[in-house]
Amino acid sequence: MISFIPSDFKVLVQEETCIKCRRCVRECSFEALSFDQRVLADHSRCVACHRCVAICPTGAITVVKNPLAFRENANWNEELIKNVYRQARVGGKLLTGTGNDKPYPIYWDHLLIDAAQVTNPSIDPLREPMELRTYLGSKPARLDFYYDGTGGFKLTTVLEPQIKLETPIIFAGMSYGAVSLNVHKALAEAARRAGTLMNSGEGGLHDSLYPYGENIVVQVASGRFGINRAYLERAAAVEIKIGQGAKPGIGGHLPGEKVTEEISRTRMIPQGTDALSPAPHHDIYSIEDLRQLIYAIKEAVRYQKPVGVKISAVHNVAAIASGVVRAGADFITIDGFRGGTGATPTIIRDHVGIPIELALAAVDDRLRQEGIRHQASLIASGSIRSSADVLKAIALGADAVAIGTAALIALGCQMCQKCYTGRCAWGITTQRPDLVDRVDPEEGAERLYNLLRAWSLEIKEILGALGLNSIESLRGSRERLRAVGLTDTEMAILGVKPAGR
Amino acid sequence: MALVKHDARGLSFRELNEKLHRLVAEGVDTIDLVNVNGQRYIGTGLARQVRLNIYGTPGSDLGAFMDGPEIYVHGSGQDAIGNTMNSGTIIINGDAGNVLGLSMRGGKIFVRGNVGYRVGIHIKAYGENLPKIIVGGVAGDFFGEYMAGGRMILLGLDRAPGQPVVGDFVGTGMHGGTIYIRGEVEEHQLGKEVGLMELTAEDEDILAEDLAEFASIYNLSLEEIMKGPFVKLVPLSHRPYGQLYVY
Questions:
Q1: Are residues A207 and A350 located together in one domain of the fold?
Q2: Closest chain A residue by Cα to residue B67
Q3: Which of A396, A496, B111, B164 would suit a FRET pair with A225, their CA atoms being 20 to 30 Å apart?
């Protein structure tokens, strides 16, 4: 039988300008290009990562969408048809990388931010102090002071461990294995420079990152990779990973070919074996069990560090988050369904979970109603794309946000969604030494730092416009948001009024 | 410093462990914990080669994240004993609960009696670290689930006639390490990722060495235990889930 799947893209090489230097052939990690007197393209292998386009010294290469269109069909679109072809050939689950690319509503884009006019003054952040400092950790319900009778006061409340952030943006958990060591190094260095945090993800922590411990959250996930006392002790905080927005409820398999010598050492598993993360933690089947693990970790770190829990945004997220807080979590990371991934079945990525905006608002509401909002910090993630998204998340109730995809884009990611192949031409989601070298940790750190700086400047600008001089003042202040194009129910969940009211 | 007695009666786990950590930090080498009654996390996160003698029933997560100590329980244990432990030894005189040795990466756990479900789940070996679990009695379902390395031995001693040595789904998802079981294991009890093998001479040597330690701890006859018969379970693949995807 003839088996024909039209290629997604076409690589066009302009004969007149090509100088036959073959750099494109060497750079194409997907082996779409070869050379035989001229550059030849196997279009079926092209993923539109644009590495060849970027590297070509004469600008001779263009990548275009394959114009071979199927007959127009709003129901059976091109992707669905091709997926059926592929699955009929192989009989397996479709894999993908990065976040959900389907046109679901993006609530950030239906929320608008207020500004001060006449009746309250705006503030110029260039000339007045503007505070972005954020503390993550459980806050006390009340503060007690001792007054010594001569004018001296002393705080007598014992505070739970806190982490100081200079900006309310941290890096999301991405494991060494999913991303390269150079990416981890760049994230760690940028976090240190910016006074914020990176998150090890679930693949352990390479020993070269130990000096950055004060700026690293380490994860304890179901695979328990690379977790020993040193790992817990080096970190600023520990996060129990229950779920990930791109793949709620499922585990993960780092394929054996990605388990190189360094990764095997860091994860503490044999080289070449699959690193399996089971779907659940098998010591956690209930909120009570979660409490048991939270306190096992608190005991192990002698109550010196915050212990948090990362969950995916799912239907019942508010009740789950309430349980997580009551289980003793010092912070909760909620990852929305548009969050990124190195590898996940497409069917899960595209159809499971709920948007972070609704989940965040629902959780913040629920925790307030129950009077336990202060007991844990809320970190929102799952597609924070700009400083505006950061601000809107904080106004909806987040203490901070975590960025993963945005950070990788800062390092050059072109969103080709082929992370799971291990061939990333930009050196980000690969372990092939020749490709890994394409990310320079120093330069990468600079770009990541720049991104954090730029967003922080923009946040200050907007805070000034709002007439606020501290991010604290915006936290949970939904009155400063208005909705456009949302239903009454959506606005009720978000706790915002329509624009004009 | 020699032996210190630490009375756990009426103490919360936090009070008990606070004092325990203080004693260890002060340099005490042997600690007798008496009147232990369900307190969790005893020995959790301890990283010095101390000896804890526990009299009573310690609670769950005994020796979690532990790195080095030797814990001797004169009684039974609860769930998640040796959770993610790195090195050291845990000896249980009685029975133990579920998910014993979850994700442990090194060290040894010995149980004289029976154990619950999902024992040895996802234990893994790396380099010099080779976790070992030896159970004298019988085990529940999912023994050695997701096992990625190390060694588990199940002896089935003191069984009632007809009582199975192990439950169902043995070694489901196993992709590394070895399980030895003394007694009959039917094909239908196995997870689909493991194969049943005959013992080699090398296996006999490994068993003789490991079981000599077990027998001496519990004062049992090694000769009697070694009579077997033993079966050996190994993973059919180090990549059990490699063929499920379309790239």
A1: yes
A2: A229
A3: B111
Structural domain contains residue A112: no
The structural domain count of chain A equals 2
**pTM, whole model, 2 decimals?**
0.95
Query: Do A410 and A328 fall within a single domain?
Result: yes
Q: In chain B, what residues touch A300 (CB-CB under 8 Å)?
A: 44-45, 64-65
Contact between A32 and A9 (Cβ < 8 Å): no
Note whether A92 contacts B245, CB cutoff 8 Å: yes
- Read off the amino acid at residue A444: G
- Chain B interface includes A87 (CB < 8 A): yes
Interface size A-B, in CB pairs within 8 Å, comes to: 129
Domain housing A438:
164-479
Does any domain span residue A137? Answer: no
A440 Cα to chain B: minimum distance (Å): 28
Do A63 and A170 lie in one domain? The reply is: no
CA distances from A99 to A347, A350, B247 (A): 12, 8, 17
Q: CA B16, A293, A234, A169 torsion: positive or negative?
A: negative
ipTM: 0.94
Q: Would you call B173 and A276 a contact, using CB atoms and an 8 Å cutoff?
A: yes
Compute the distance between CA of residue A221 and CA of residue A408 in angstroms, rounded to an integer: 22
pLDDT per residue over B126-180, tens digit each?
988 999 999 999 999 999 999 999 999 999 999 999 999 999 999 999 999 999 9
**In this structure, are A58 and A179 located in the same domain?**
no
CB proximity list for A57: less than 8 A, separation 6 or greater: A19, A21, A23
| Cβ–Cβ below 8 Å for B239 and A227 | no
Q: What is the CATH number of the domain that holds A23?
A: 3.30.70.20
Looking at the domain assignment, is residue A316 inside a domain?
yes
Domain-embedded: residue A496? no
